[in-house]
Design goal:
single chain, alpha/beta, Arc Repressor Mutant, subunit A, Nucleotidyltransferase, domain 5, 3 domains, 14 helices, 5 strands
Amino acid sequence: MVAAKHTRLKPSLQAEMKRLHRLNPKKFNPYKLSAKFNVPRTTIRDFLKRSEISGGGAKPGRPRKLSPRDERHVIRLAANTKRSQQSIANALPVKVSRRTIGRILHRCPFIRRSQLRIHPEMKPEDPEKRRLFARKYHHWGNKWRKTFFLDEKKFNLDGPDGDRGYWRDIRTPPKAFCKRVAGGGSVNIWLGINFYQKLDLMFIKGANNSIQYTDILERALFEKVDARFARGFNLLHDGSSIHTSHFTEDYLTKKNVYVLDWPPRSPDLNPIENVFGLLARRVYRGNRQFSSVAELKEAIKQEWGKISLEEIRPFITSLNNRLARVLETHGRQYVA
């Protein structure tokens, strides 16, 4: 007997199908009910597309291998780790490809592939020293404008270490990064900044020591300091041996300069580190490499001359907020 054609299921049949689905969802087969209720399969299919039984309609493609719970497990495995997509896939009880893991992570709104920041390793006593420093100076406010921030940095001919990734056009040959043995040479520089003044760039000859360091301070800082600091100023540099030697301390005492107590392993609290980062990005823009020390020196001088006080000042004015963050985290977390 040929089943009669219906465009819609009767309400009584709709209710019956839903009841049967609730009783045993796993064994529910609506198409077997076609003969029982004398209803065409197409009518049942149209009903399922609109019904909550199928979640509002059949989805195209294969069903997902991973349940929502499995996907949450994938996100937990990946969060704040360096695990690869393949290692995450291997850790799951269900066999899936690394591309499946990649799609799950890309769909997650709070997971992003990021570069690890380079920070010195903290010792157990360092957080307390950072907290005490922040507590002592977080109220300084405009006093930071009377402070000079100083430090040294090395520039290599082959550029800084770090990510050298790029978006490749696959229609062109791949690029390569050529690195010479031992970097091919380097340049050590000294920089000093203040809210009102950008000091001259100084190149360090050979291994730096206390005598050369104080000579740089004399020529680049004390002989060039702005007249507004005639009554004195503050100075902040890190705790390297040439900065804290008796020779350097005696020299600065005679100059009547107040030197801040620097907490160890705290580059995030010295604005000069931000300036060094800005300078390095411009010197090595486009993964640039240099063929000679003279060429590198010239590039550093040119880029340092282009950096304005307007670009430097935000690094200094943000110090109060940085110190507040140190207090909030009890000195345990580096401030971005």
